[in-house]
Design goal:
The chain is an alpha/beta fold and about 375 residues long. It has eleven helices and 14 strands. The chain folds into two domains: about 240 residues, Type I PLP-dependent aspartate aminotransferase-like (Major domain) (Aspartate Aminotransferase, domain 2); about 100 residues, Aspartate Aminotransferase, domain 1. Bound molecules: pyridoxal-5'-phosphate.
Length: about 375
Amino acid sequence: MTQKNKAMQNMERILNFSAGPSALPLEVLERAKEEMLSFNGIGASVMEISHRSKTFLQVLEKAKGGIREIMNVPDDYEVLFLSGGASLQFAMVPMNFLRKKAYYVVTGAWSLKAMKEAEKIKESHCGNSKPEVLKAYSSEPDFSVIPLPTEIQFDEGCDYVHYCSNETIDGVEFDYDLNADKTPVVCDASSCIMSKRIDVSKYSMIYAGAQKNLGPSGITVVIVKKEFLELCNPKLPTLLSYRSFAENNSMPNTPNTWGIYLIGLVCDWIREKGGLEVIGRINAEKARLIYEEIDRSDGFYRGRAKPEARSRMNVTFTLPSKELEEKFCTEAKKLGMDGLKGHRSVGGIRVSLYNAITLEAVARLVEFMRDFRVKNHKP
Ligand SMILES: Cc1ncc(COP(=O)(O)O)c(C=O)c1O
């Protein structure tokens, strides 16, 4: 090993508040490191074996089973692994399910993107009548609120209603499961999946890019009701069809084996922590500590989201000037805290508090925020 490599190995890990890809639990990384060269004593890494091998099939079942157990996924749902990120789901959902009319709840940059992709799919429809893609609600341009259930308007006979349960860029989060008795609900839960208990039975489909709470980037989890799968457009190419993923155990082609393996390890970790009730309570407490500091800062830190819409996963706020925001990030970095810069489209600061972020890490950040305010606040 070179001197440089040795030095890097000894480096202390940072407190990583990045929005995604983001921090993974240390225990998971350590286990992956232990098993890197020889998984289960087979003399090869999990990345180096056939996805059709018995060993890998066990890895796949473990990850699927972990998600089922932790999220209480009912038996009439499939758990699938896809690639292409959550962004591919923005296109696959309308490709598979848009026939006449779909509605989008637009509460932030990601749900707006999902709707725009659906509009493109609509435009590419070859039939005589183009389907409709409509807004069920919009909080543009501020994206600082979450609608009450009664404010979301859609036609009950439509193909589906889509929403994003946590807007990673804007920092707003639904604190309820959107319930539509007679209409399939499709949810982008990329940045809050497994951060608290949700009622899966209320959804026809939940999807999430793994790179926040579940594992590495490049793999997406799709939880879909079998009844809804029946409605898939049967004429799609294999890799764009949910049905082909369901019929081929998520492997119509070579999957991201490493990603699936890590999701299995993250599931072990969540179970060891006590499951979603415990994880949910810790996450609520982490967010409470940061928002409390924002609220007592006399306007020095200004939250983007209205208090009742605040996200527990992505806390977004601004400081009195861009210079102070830069100084905030630079000084935090010197103290080992990184990933705090807001998304490039909105600026400001964003603190992401996914499952792997500990209460201790948050307490250190809050202490820094307090010190920074005392030194820089000029009322
Ligand atoms: C809520 C949400 N949806 C979708 C995406 C897009 O994910 P990907 O980059 O995996 O396509 C992101 C990415 O951060 C996200 O936060």
